[in-house]
Amino acid sequence: MKNKLWYALLGVLAFSITINADKAKVKKVVKKEAYHAVWQRIYGGTEDDIAYGVVALENGDSAIVGTCKSYGAQRTDICVTRMSADGAMKWRLWLGGKKKDEGKAIARAADGNILVLGRSKFGKRYDYDLYVAKISLDGKKIWEKSLGGERDEYAGGIAGTDDGGVLVVGSSESYGKKADKDIYIAKLTKEGKLVSAHTVGGKKEDVATALTRTRDGKMVLVGYREASRTGNSDFLIMQLDQNGKQRWVKTFGGPYEDMLFGVTATVDNGIVAIGSTRSYGSAQSDLTVMKIDGKGKTIWHKIYGFKYYEYGEAVATTRDGGFMLVGGTNTLGKGNHSAYLLALDRRGELIWSHVYGGERKDVAHGVARMSDGSIIVVGETESFKPAKNFFIIKLRKTK
């Protein structure tokens, strides 16, 4: 069953498009078997269970956040799972209320405990509020907090601050002049008390989708900003201090839809961000990835795509200074939608790529480097059961 469960497929040649100021250059890259799957797991019940984010713990363990409907969940719950280095489940915790709850992002606090971000219909109203929780390493809830107004809020990213607190970013329909989304930024104490909250936005939609902490203690959020017309959005990158105050903001893009969904810090105080683009000559949508330095300057910008739809959802650094990108494709693979993984070197050049999945829909939503140097990829699969299940792959670099 394991042999039939997963497979990987890519041609010998893949294409890399390097975006310069005035032109796009295409070069062929020879694929190498730079990574291999140590193990692959599927977890879930008879209802939909989807993994969205993963963070490294000690001894090669990982903590995974998702949205679960199985195992006694009330409608949908935020679920947090701790996995051992060999893929065994150590514990699972459900968070939320009696209505719908959705998990989105996970991080570590300064004291080593686990921070979780999602959104929840936690109160008496029927709108979604942001949901923030702190969890101990043995799976006990320490505190929880809901944030929001009278309309819907959307979870983006979460990170721990030096004072033991939490910085949260997302999007809000509650506090702008109209119902369009504005970026929402909130700072909480280590006890979960709200210190400050504010929105950033213009006359159209402004959305924060992910957050990372850089090596020098700054915070960087990514997302997208709606431009002149519906269906036209630009990449958005914003650097914050640890209290959520804006230091600089960068927006750019082409004439069509350009969005960022994931971000990770680099060793030189910059970031690498990943998403999708319909600009820059893309046939439908392509996976886009870019490196930005600590002052907002673009160091490189790459696009990887084929005939139909490719997109990136998350990115992590590798032990050798490169990057692991994860997302989805409906061009490659034997199914109608496969999980798409790419490894780049520190210059953004493609060194390896694979697709994973079966005959239905499979997507990679999150990725992190573990303490033992391996890579854990999490997402969803509906290829092997009637319901969607957690899909988890552990990768290690081939010697």
Q: Can you put this structure into words, describing what you see?
A:
There is one protein chain. The chain is mainly beta. The protein has a single domain (11-397), classed as Neuraminidase (6 Propeller). The chain has one helix and 30 strands. It has one helix at 2-5, and strands at 13-19, 24-30, 35-43, 49-56, 62-68, 77-83, 89-95, 101-108, 114-120, 129-135, 141-147, 153-160, 166-172, 182-188, 194-200, 206-213, 219-226, 233-240, 246-252, 258-265, 271-277, 286-292, 298-304, 310-317, 323-329, 338-344, 350-356, 362-369, 375-381, 389-397. The strands form seven sheets. The chain has a six-stranded antiparallel β-sheet, with no helix packed on it. A four-stranded antiparallel β-sheet has the order 3-30-29-28, with no helix packed on it. The protein has a four-stranded antiparallel β-sheet with strand order 4-5-6-7, with no helix packed on it. A hairpin with a 7-residue loop joins β29 and β30 (389-397). 53% of the residues are buried. The model is unreliable at 1-30 (pLDDT under 50).
Computed over alpha carbons, the radius of gyration is 20 Å
What strand line-up does the widest sheet have? 2-1-23-22-21-20
The total tally of domains equals 1
- Percent strand: over 45%
Give the tags.
single chain; 399 residues; mainly beta; Neuraminidase; four-stranded antiparallel beta sheet; 1 helix; 1% helix; globular
Annotate the secondary structure layout.
Blueprint: H1 2-5, E1 13-19, E2 24-30, E3 35-43, E4 49-56, E5 62-68, E6 77-83, E7 89-95, E8 101-108, E9 114-120, E10 129-135, E11 141-147, E12 153-160, E13 166-172, E14 182-188, E15 194-200, E16 206-213, E17 219-226, E18 233-240, E19 246-252, E20 258-265, E21 271-277, E22 286-292, E23 298-304, E24 310-317, E25 323-329, E26 338-344, E27 350-356, E28 362-369, E29 375-381, E30 389-397
Antiparallel strand pairs: 1-2, 1-23, 3-30, 4-5, 5-6, 6-7, 8-9, 9-10, 10-11, 12-13, 13-14, 14-15, 16-17, 17-18, 18-19, 20-21, 21-22, 22-23, 24-25, 25-26, 26-27, 28-29, 29-30
